[in-house]
Amino acid sequence: MPFAARMNFDFATAARILFGAGRLSELGNVARSWGNRALLVTGTRPEPGARVTQLLRDAGVTSHRYPVTGEPTVAAVTEAAMAARAHHAELVIAIGGGSVMDAGKAIAALVTNHGDPLDYLEVIGAGQPLLVEPLPFIAIPTTAGTGSEVTRNAVLGSPAHRIKVSLRSPRMLPKLALVDPELTLDLPESLTATTALDAITQLIEAAVCLGAHPMTDTLCREGLLRAVEALPRAVRDGSNLEARTDLQFAALCSGLALANAGLGAVHGLAGPIGGRFHAPHGAVCAALLTPILQANLGALRARDPRGPGLIRLRRVAHWVTGRRDATAEDLIPALQALITPLKVPSLTRLGVDVADFPELIRQARRSSSMQGNPVVLTDSELLEALKAAG
Length: 390
Ligand SMILES: [Fe+2]
Prior knowledge:
Radius of gyration: 20 Å
CATH superfamily of the largest domain: Dehydroquinate synthase-like - alpha domain
CATH architecture of the largest domain: Up-down Bundle
Helix content: 40-55%
CATH topology of the largest domain: Dehydroquinate synthase-like, alpha domain
Number of helices: 14
Strand order of the largest sheet: 1-8-5-4-2-3
Structural class: alpha/beta
CATH class of the largest domain: Mainly Alpha
Order of helices and strands: EHEHEHEHEEEEHHHHHHHHHH
Largest sheet: 6 strands, parallel
Low-confidence stretches: none
Number of domains: 2
Number of strands: 8
Shape: globular
Strand content: 5-15%
Bound molecules: fe (ii) ion
């Protein structure tokens, strides 16, 4: 009984999740319960930050806006934490995609944990634990992808090291994840597709990884059933609130699952790729998903044919195809049928240099995601998968 052994788990998430169309309007009252001065982290678009500023003002909360361009760097969040202190911010609110939410999460932690941020960073720094509770942090996603609103880490770029690293602590779980699908109604088609494919990849990797357990399985099943059905509808008609709601819920499930189970080789490789090339994370995941699943299937059939990995892949195939008689192998064509119409670019079209593949594999080996993969893939298996995605 491969799953009975895992009926023993740890599950932690945001202190509160507010989910539903129109619920952004409740932000002001909740924010005021934590203070009267907020640092508001946004992307570069004037909306929806302007709406949040107004909601806060109506509730008597003053906000200082801090726009983040692109993926956050260690230097940018350090500077923003100083701005938050100068503003005497009592809470941090981030509204945007995964990068913006990660920036807000890191800023909330660095405002109260003084010193060099390198003290707290994995890989390039000392990786010390955060000793002081961060400022209360509210995460409001405007894409349906990363699930960062319920995770405990912030991915930061370090251009000097050409790498992305995580600031990670159980203390960094948001105090509130405010998830309003109406905020995703104006997402363009390509962003809808790539962010949803990130969520689908996260749901699949969390469902087959070594850390999967019954709580995360439940989330992965529900998230995948909804995402697979809703993605084509949301791409066809971006104004379909029902499809947007299902995608947003699936993304939330993916964040809840990955933060408590882990991920796999797709994310193991996507981290170093994102650190070296300016390729959108969701597109990288989409390009790698079926090649890595193919590699996992081959390796599990050859080296662990009776283990839980193949059973887990078969269960995911049931959820994705909607067929009880689906085999693990049926998962690949079912995903290709979903992904191909979305015209996701190959890795090389995303700017990834084939000459860097061996170095990317070397870096990926050190990531926690790679260590969660259901089977250890050899260098040649990973190289084959990268070539198939390239
Ligand atoms: Fe991801």
